[in-house]
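As promised in the previous annual report, we have extended the structural survey to additional targets. Below is the entry for Neprosin PEP catalytic domain-containing protein.
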Amino acid sequence: MGLTEISGGHRGRILKGVLFLACLWGLISLSCAGRLSASRQKLEVQKHLKRLNKLPIKTIQSPDGDIIDCVHISHQPAFDHPFLKDHKIQTRPSYHPEGLFSENKMSMGPKERTKPITQLWHMNGKCPEDTIPIRRTKEEDVLRASSVKRYGKKKHRSIPKPRSADPDLMNESGHQHAIAYVQGDKYYGAKATINVWEPKIQQPNEFSLSQIWVLGGSFGEDLNSIEAGWQVSPDLYGDNNTRLFTYWTSDAYQATGCYNLLCSGFIQVNSEIAMGASISPISGYRNSQYDISILIWKDPKEGHWWMQFGSGYVLGYWPSFLFSYLADSASMIEWGGEVVNSQPDGHHTSTQMGSGHFPEEGFGKSSYFRNIQVVDSSNNLKAPKDLGTFTEQSNCYDVQTGNNGDWGHYFYYGGPGRNPNCT
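The corresponding structure token record, generated without further manual editing, is:
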């Protein structure tokens, strides 16, 4: 029976089979291999999406286009981790650090008063009790990554190295920083209040963030890091919105860890705040200032690392078993900004850090971290001792520290990137 006598459906299947065999035999070259590769990639992406996007009890459409899924607390991605199969969720920390700086006692003048902040999706609903809000991952999110495996992960070597005197070593990753830091002691947490901006990003593969780093170990391949703050990352989120984020790694960003809830690890217990969701409103130049408070600390009883957002949102925890060095304590704390400088057209990027303005411009114009504190071995929040500063190129992004009664230890930081003195 000739092909002309075969029904359309059968003919299609036979032709597909012939094409597949031809591909295998190398009779049809690159275009064929490309189609098979694209098909395999699509299948891989769909599998990954199925792993990440858990069945929701309720779904909320955010005004910015995000979909927020309210997922039962026991079905969140954390519990895909083999070590967490029999884990009993700790709904609250055993201890809070003592000596939390009271935001209510602050006596800032009218020009320096800051305002509360929320997330955009709150406009359209809230998640029920016993669920957590998870930003749904879309196919296009994963496809923007260099591979399915690298989706939701930072590139290697994105930690600032204040102790290094070699500018080539510090700059090899294209990441640039303006930070304050402490080292030389055992640290059990860190806190700061950070004002929130929407820095302009020059290239889609670049980002700008402001965060706290809680670090353990050396700067080698076994570095442990817990990070939290705000970021603008078109590559990760597909837009230029400012978003709350967390990150962790136990091997210097090689294989472990991820942003937000994009892998198993962080256990969220809060039903009101979504990791990776847009923050609103944003500070304006010479206008109202909006800031967020972030506290990360190690629970002395259970040993887990907890995160609190604002004055009342205890978000969840990183179980201590995820880490080697941080299973005990941190050896360094860093606060500040980071950008990627991909050197478009061979010039320094014009991606902004913070507000895009230098520290000397001060309140209402420059970005700040205020009320910087560390947690000591007695679970007390204290002012940091011997606060150092570091930036790779101060004519691109800079940092200036200060200390007063209202703001405690603070610093202004950031800059525009490319300018006449930074090319």
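The chain is about 15% helix and 30% strand. The longest strand covers residues 175-187. These points will be discussed at the next consortium meeting with the crystallography subgroup.
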